[in-house]
Amino acid sequence: MNINLSLRTLHFKRPARTSRGAYSERRIILLTATDEEGQRIGLGECAPLPDLSSDRDAYPTLSSVAELIRQALDAEDYTEFLRPYPALLFALESAIHDYRQSPTLYDTPFARSEVGIPFNGLIWMSSPDEMLAQIKQKLLQGFHCIKLKIGANSWDDEIGLIRKVRSRYSRESLELRVDANGAFAPDTAMKRLETLASLDVHSIEQPIAQYQWHEMAELCRNTPLPIALDEELIGVTGRLEKETLLDTVRPQYIVLKPTLHGGMTGTMEWASLADRRGIGSWITSALESNVGLRNAALLAARIYGPDIRFPQGLGTGQLFTDNIEMDIELRGARLWRSEVADI
């Protein structure tokens, strides 16, 4: 098996805004695994997020990435060697599983194109009117679960938007999730959680910034609505560290992004440790191309299948003007595996 590397720059259709800022383009490294004759192809995507991924500065050149891969494949266990490099681990695992058509990922109803995976409609931060227009579009497309990015506009504007949505759509007809990306201050977070709970919000991701375990644990202990950890998991790579975090904070959910949270191996470890503690989880993409999205979906089908009912966060495949064609497609509010594409 040979591993070839190439750089791609993808361009967002519209700036992807979070409480940390906006992205207008996305640089990724594609890993292509081939046999000696180039007849079998496996694809993986290494796409750390600037200012967020723990390994964001670990891949300055393609030659440095190639050297890390060489060392990893020479090691006794490449997944253990690459624990500090989650984005590269996800890419290499994906390429190898794809190359081998491993039953771990490819022997599921989703991989056989028998079922689709439900996902939430993602509403990006914008003006209240524009966000409301996004919500209406998602509902027309058949979504019954949407996630709102909050924290960049004023709280009054954001809560006003949620009130407007709730006045039109009940909890039974529309599930609302919100993602604060750590935007709330610890001393005001509880009051805001109470307001969100009064509007039948399903859950909130990362209400306060990471590395505040005591404050987050107190919120999770007393919260009126479920809290999901996201950024809090970044950089927590060892099994004992993961257990300590989960046992200290005791969240209701964790949100798993393979690019950020340990590749496929690390994501499966997180999900297993959480499940043993009665903590729920779901998988979401991290602004990858269709390559990363497809591999995250295959992983979600393995962990949560065979018939996934709980909406995942796998709907970012339409963000780019120049995405990479893959064997996945969106049908309403579900992601399906389709005919194999020629890459």
Give keywords.
343 residues, alpha/beta, Enolase-like, domain 1, TIM Barrel, 2 domains, seven-stranded parallel β-sheet, three-stranded antiparallel β-sheet, 22% strand, globular
Assembly form of the protein: single chain
Would you list the SSEs in sequence order as H and E?
A: EEEHHHHEEHEHEHEHEHEHEHEE
Average pLDDT, to the nearest integer?
93
Shape: globular
Main sheet strand line-up:
5-6-7-8-9-10-11
What is the CATH domain class of the largest domain? Alpha Beta
Brief digest:
With 343 residues, this protein is of the alpha/beta class. It has eleven helices and 13 strands.
Describe the protein.
The protein is an alpha/beta fold. It has two domains: 2-100, Enolase-like, N-terminal domain (Enolase-like, domain 1, 2-Layer Sandwich), CATH 3.30.390.10; 117-337, Enolase-like C-terminal domain (TIM Barrel). The protein has helices at residues 62-74, 78-81, 86-100, 103-106, 128-140, 155-168, 186-198, 213-222, 239-249, 263-276, 290-304, and strands at residues 2-18, 21-34, 41-46, 117-118, 121-123, 145-149, 175-179, 203-205, 227-229, 253-256, 280-283, 328-331, 334-337. The strands form three sheets. A seven-stranded parallel beta sheet has the order 5-6-7-8-9-10-11. Strand 5 (121-123), helix 5 (128-140) and strand 6 form a beta-alpha-beta unit. The longest helix has 15 residues, at 86-100. The protein is globular, with a radius of gyration of 20 Å.
